[in-house]
Prior knowledge:
Number of helices: 16
Helix content: 55-70%
Structural class: mainly alpha
Shape: globular
Radius of gyration: 23 Å
Largest sheet: none
Number of strands: 0
Strand content: under 5%
Mean pLDDT: 87
Order of helices and strands: HHHHHHHHHHHHHHHH
Distance between the termini: 60 Å
Amino acid sequence: MYTKYLVSSSPHIASKKTTKNIMIDVVISLIPCMIASILIYGFNPLFNIILATVGSTAGESIYSLMRKRRNTIEDWSAIVTGVILGLNLPPAIPFYMPVIGGIFATLIVKMLFGGIGRNFANPAITARIFLLLAWGASMTAYVAPIDLSKGFSEMFKYVGLSSSEIADLTSATPLSYLKDGNYGAVSNLDLFLGRIGGSAGEVCAIAVLIGFVYLYVRRIIDAKIPVIFVATAAICALAFYGDVNMILPTVLSGGLLFGAVFMATDYATSPNTPWGVVIYAVGCGFLTVLFRKFGRMPEGVSFAILIMNIVTPLLDKYIYPRPFGYKRPKKVKPAKEECAK
């Protein structure tokens, strides 16, 4: 009698978590940001999220039809891409831009490179950069928060406006002041609560932190990436500006927190080794502040994460953990007789 063993490919440890479960958890973690964006800017961010999600699911479906493959939108990854992209956009932009961005994210960045897990960069952040390069004026037209004390009609304040009308309502963002080290232009409380102009889902720091806590408790993301990302940005802000008062505004403004929590932690585009994760997160934080201080545009999170996404394969190739149970052999001193010879 003998026992028959079946040898299969890894992984050998099973988990109840599926791709769909993980993506649903990510969507749940984004709900505070969605609610905050609607309360701050009205219904326009909700429309952007819906349109971006329609575009991202359409892009994945188009690829599946062209290649005659099973449609993979049931794993919810395209929905997550659409929601994150919609929250990354200014509140008031032309309706076609979220749709085009969503299609670009899944069809070009994700599916053409092999689908989920094989994309070279985060689809949502790459689509945002694509829209920024294609329609720079619209992508930097940030409007001021609405005033709900004026009534429910404020929720529709930015609905249906033309590009010229939106341009007339554009307000300065905190980053435009911080670029020159003017930290007193906007209060830290306004930055924390989101009472500022900016991209819809990025401005409310408290909403992003609630999402971070949920993802961490559910063990969906590695907390080291956002923590090291933010800590590095804070240290670089102090080093570049030479003023401790610049630390909080740097961390709370723009898309730094949102990018650190929801985009830099993408499984497919972040390193797999402990030291790779550290280098990756430090690079994201350093490049973000570098671009903000010396770049032409006041924001640098998207470009920083994209660059480190591209660097990730090199980190995985040249930085690898010590094999389990491996012990470095001790150096053996040569015998006295051999030394004499």
